[in-house]
Please model this.
Amino acid sequence: MHQRLAHAIPTQRQQSRTHPLYWCFLLLLCAAYIQGGLTKAVDFPAALAEMRHFGLAPEPPLALLTIAGELGASLLILCGVLRWAGALYLALFTFAANFVANRFWEMAEPARTMAANGFFEHLGLVGAFLIVAWVDVKGRPRG
Model:
């Protein structure tokens, strides 16, 4: 089982296509961004309300940028075209959004503990996207 799983992670010999299992891992990693982008696109007034909730202005362009970024970067990752760029984008987006949405240091309990958990879970997502970018760049032929 371990050797089968190890073959799912791309190497320099496997740059032309994505192993189906690795693609499923990438889909799981992008799932929240696909869901978030689609939800915001379908209910744009709610996307604007979310921007207001977090004190972000101007709401319409930031909401559009968020939708385009979440869906566009996820598409790059899943299609394997500039996968490293999509992964870096979502890593930076998640890192920045984490400091906007999960400001646990400003909260009282019990919200503080839940926000702290969310904050550190999102750092884990940042790390995962950085691994995806690293694997994609390292798997490309030199020259």
Summary: The mean pLDDT is 91. Residues 19-137 form one domain. The chain has one domain: 19-137. The radius of gyration is 17 Å.
